Amino acid sequence: MRPVRGPVRPRPRPGARATSAALLLLFTLAVAGLLPPAPAAAAEDVTTEEARVPVGTGADAAELDTTLFLPASASAAEPAPAVVLAHGFGGSKDSVATDARDLAGRGYVVLTYSARGFGESTGRIGLNDPHFEVADLSALLDRLAARDDVLLDAEGDPRVGVAGASYGGALALLGAGYDDRVDAIAPQITWNSLTAALFPSQLGEPAAGTVAATAQAQDGGVYKRLWSGLFFGVGSAPSGGLLGALGGGDGDGDGAAAAAGSLPAELPGDLGAIDPAAVDPQAVEQLLTCGRFTPEVCAAYQSAASTGTLTPEIAAVLDRSSPAPVLERIEAPTLLVQGTQDSLFGLGQADANARGIAADGTPVKVVWYQGGHDTQASERTTEQLREQVAGWFDWHLRSADDPARGPDPGTGFEFPAPTGVTATVGTVQGGNRTVTAPAYPGLAGAEPAQRSAIAVDGPLQPVVTPAGGTPAAITVVPGLGSLAAALSGTAFEIPGQFAAFQSEPLGEAVEVVGASTIDLAVASPGGSATLFAKLYDVAPDGTATLPAGLVAPLALTGLSGDPTAPTQVSVTLPGIVHRFEAGHTMRVVVSSTDQAFALPSEAAVYSVALAAGGDAAALAVPQVDGRTEDPSGTSRWWVLLGVVVALGLLGWLAAVLWGRRSRRRVSVVEPDGEDVPLRFTGVTKAYKDGFVAVRDLSFEVRRGQVLGLLGPNGAGKTTSLRMLMGLIRPTEGRITVFGHEIRPGTPVLSRLGSFVEGTGLMPHLSGRDNLRLYWAATGRPADDAHMDEAIEVAGLGAAIDRPVRRYSQGMRQRVAIAQAMLGLPDLLVLDEPTNGLDPPQIHAMREVLRSYAATGRTVIVSSHLLSEIEQTCSHVVVMAKGQKIAQGTVEEIVGTGGSVLVGLADDADGDRAAAVLTGLPGVTVERTDEGLVADLDGTGRAPALQALVAAGIAVDAFTPRRRLEDAFLALVGEDS
C-alpha cells in the first residue's frame, strides 16, 4: 500500500497535526461524556514494598510473602484507605497483582500476600481456618494500622476493605466475621458452607422469598469427588517439586520444608548429601502424603476420598472453614459477586451469604455474572467487575468530602440478561446486557421472589444405577465447562439410568433467574438412593441443552421400598440464568450417575415419578423483573455523535501517521507456503489488563490434513481462529496462510473459508438468498461460487428456499457451513461444525470434511467434543489455558498404552489369559460385562498380544479401549 498523498501544502512543524488531532479528540470525548474520571494516582506512580511477615507462634508459626502497592498520593499528611487482596486456591500474591495495581492507581494502599502454604509463604494450608489464615489476616491489619500513610478510624484500626475470589472470597467473609476492623468486603465466587458445597444434597423446602435459595439435607450429601480431588491435588503438590519440597530447591522448596515441621529449613540440593539424622521420617511421610495441608485437613480428605461419606470429623473441619456460622457478626457492607457458570460454588452459596449478612441490617449488594469456576469471564466482564469492586470501596471506604468517592452503588441486584441457546448448540449467548433490580429478592425490605408454575408430565419410571457407578453420565468436568456430549456425540444421558418429565412446548419465552423447585416421588428397595436432578432446554428439533452443565445431587434416605407408595421429596434444581425460548420445552431429568461425584458401589433399581399423585406436576421457576441495560449502547444521540466524530478523527490521525512512514513494509512469502497452508510461530495474544489468552503457540498444518483444534472452554481456540482470520492481531509471533503473513485485509484470506462464532445469517432471507448475498459481497464471479455443491452440503432440500427465521438451529448450522464452503476454499476453518446436527447429518458431515481434505485442501476443526475430533480429524492440537500441550496424529495423542478389550475364541480360556497378562510388567486385568479388560501400564499392546499367542490362547479380538477422551483428560489434568 502506497502512502496517502494529497495536494502539496506548507509543511507544519513536526507533531503539530498529531497534537491538534489529539486535542480535538480529547475535547470531543470530554463533551460526549466518555472520558473516565482521572484516577487518584497514575499506575506509573505506584511503588511496591516487598516484605516477609511472621505470623502465628510455636508450631503454628509461618512467614507470609507480601507486597504493598503504594500510590504516590498516600502520605502521612494525606493517608489513604487500604485494601487487602486475597488470592484463590492454588494461587499466590502474583495472581492478584493486576487488580492491586489498578486499585493503587485509584489511590488505595493495597496489600497482597501469598496465604500460608502457597507461593513463597511457609506454613500449612488450613482452608481458611480461623486459627490460621483468618488470624493471619488480622496480623496483616495490625501492620497496616502501624503505617502513617494508611487512614485510621481509631488507634490500631485501619480504614480497610478486603476482596478476593473463591478461597480469597471466603477469607474476606470470615475476616469480617472475626475482626470488626474490616470496613467493607467484596467476596467473589465463594462458598457459604464448604460442607454443603462439597457434600451437596438439594432436598427439602428452601428458604422462601429469594430466587436461588438452595435446600441442603442435614445429614450430608453426595461427595463432589472430582472437585475435591482437584483441590487436594493442587495443595498436595509441593510448589518447588519433590526435591524443592525437601529443601534442596528454590524458595518454594525451603518454605515447604520448613512447613513440614521437623525438616531442616535448608538442605543441600543433592539428596545423597542429606544427613539422615537431620530428617524426621514421619515429617517426610506427612509431606509426601498430605503435601502442604494441615494434618486435620489431610485426614478429612483421605477419609472422604476413600468412603465418599460425610463424617462428624470431616464436617467439623469444613464447618470451621465456612462463613455460615459467623455471618450474623458481619457489619461491613458486602458486595457479593457470584458466577452463573460454576459447578463448584453455585448461586445458592451466594444466596445463603446474602440472607445471613442482611438479616441484621448490614448493606448487601448481589451481582451475578456470566462466568465462574467452569468458564472464564470475558475481558469486558472482568473489567466491569473490577469497576464494581472499586466503586464499592470508593463509597464505603472514602470520606464523604473525598472528590474520588463516587456514586452510591446501592444495595441492588444485577445479573446477566437471560438468553437462550445460540446456533452453537449447548452454549448460552454471552452478550453484554445486564438486568438490574432495586434489591435482591427476599432480603429485608425487598419484595419476595416471583415464581411461575410450569406443568410437566411423565409416568413413573425405573432408574437403574449400575454396579460401581460405571458407566456414569458426563455433565461437567471441573474447570473445563460442559462436556455433556462427550459420550456419544449427542446424548447427554445414559439410557436406562434416568427418568424424564417434560412440559408442553412453551407458548412464550420463559426467563429463569435462580433455582427452580419440583416435588418428586421416589422408591428404593434398599431405602436409600443417590440421584441427580437437572433442568434441560429442549429445542423443537429435539436437541437438549443443559444450562451451564449444572446438576442437583440428591442423597435420599428413609425411602419407601414400594413403587406403588413412593416417598415424596422436595427438590431444588440448580440455580441458572437462562431463557427458554417459545416453542422449546422444559425437561426435568433425574439420573442415577454423574462422573463428577462419588457413587454407590451396589447396583439398584429405583422408581421415580412426579409427586402430584398422577402424571403431571408443577415446576416452580423463579423470575425477576428489572431494567435491562446494554453497556455497549446509549440512548443519548449526542454521545453517539461524539463517538462517531472521535472515530473519524482517529481514522484521520492514523492515515496521517501512516502517510509519514518513510519505508514500505514488504511481505516475505515463505518458500514452502503452498505445502504448509497454515503455520503459527510463537503466537501470543495478551490484553491490556494482563490477561494472556494465547501464549507462545506454534504448530503447522499441511495439505490434505483435517486438523482438530481441541481444548476446554477458555483454552484459547476461538482467539487463535480470530487471529488466523485477521480479525484481531497477535501481540507477538507470526501467522502465515500459504506462506503469506496474516494481517487484516491480507489478499490471501480470499483462499480461506470460515465459520466461527455464530452463523450471521439474515433471518428474513431464505437459505439460498443468504448464500447468494454472501458470495456477492466477495465481488467474485457467480460461477466461482460452486453454489450447487454448497447447497448439496447443506442438505436442506426444499427448505433452502424458506426464510431462515423458520429454520431450526441445526438447519442454520448447515447453511452456515455451506456458506463457508462457497468457492471451494483451499483452507476451510470451522468452529463446532456438528453442533445442532442429528446423528445421520453428523456422519455425513464427517464424510464431507474428510473427502474435502482428500482433494488436497486443508480443514481446521475447532471443537470441545472429543468424539467428533477423534472420528473426523487426522491430526490434533490440544490446547489448555492458552497454550499448546500436545500435537500429533490422533493415534499419537491417544498413545499405545491404556486399556484393551480381549476377545477370546473360547471363554474357558479366560482364567489362563488373565494369568498370562497379569504376569507381564505393570498389567492388571478386570472382568467386565464386555469381556476381559487389561490395563497396560508399562507394557505395549504388541508384547501383550504376543504373550497370549505364545501361551496357545486363541484371541478373537484385541481392541484398544483408550480413546481420545481419556488422553485429553489426562493431558489437561497434567497441565493443570
How many DSSP H or I helices?
24
Largest sheet: 11 strands, mixed
- Tell me the CATH topology of the largest domain: Rossmann fold
CATH homologous superfamily heading of the largest domain:
Alpha/Beta hydrolase fold, catalytic domain
The proportion of residues in beta strands is: 25-35%
Shape label: globular
Specify Rg, calculated over alpha carbons: 30 Å
| Quaternary state of the chains | single chain
Annotation, overall tally of beta strands: 40
Question: How many discrete domains?
Answer: 5
Task: Summarize the structure in words.
By secondary structure, this protein is of the alpha+beta class. It has five domains: 43-198 and 320-437, Alpha/Beta hydrolase fold, catalytic domain (Rossmann fold, 3-Layer(aba) Sandwich), CATH 3.40.50; 225-318, no CATH class; 450-627, Galactose-binding domain-like (Jelly Rolls), CATH 2.60.120.260; 678-891, P-loop containing nucleotide triphosphate hydrolases (Rossmann fold, 3-Layer(aba) Sandwich); 895-971, Lrp/AsnC effector binding domain/regulation of amino acid metabolism (RAM) domain (Alpha-Beta Plaits, 2-Layer Sandwich). It is 27% helix and 25% strand. The chain is built from 24 helices and 40 strands. The strands form eight sheets. Strands 1-2-4-3-7-8-9-10-11-12-26 form an eleven-stranded mixed β-sheet, with helices on both faces. Strands 13, 17, 19, 20, 21, 23 and 25 form a seven-stranded antiparallel β-sheet that branches. A six-stranded mixed β-sheet has the order 32-33-34-29-35-36, sandwiched between helices. Helix 1 packs antiparallel against helix 14 (637-659), helix 3 crosses helix 4 and helix 16 (767-778) runs parallel beside helix 18 (809-821). The longest helix is centred in the middle third of the chain and has 23 residues, at 637-659. The two termini are 45 Å apart.
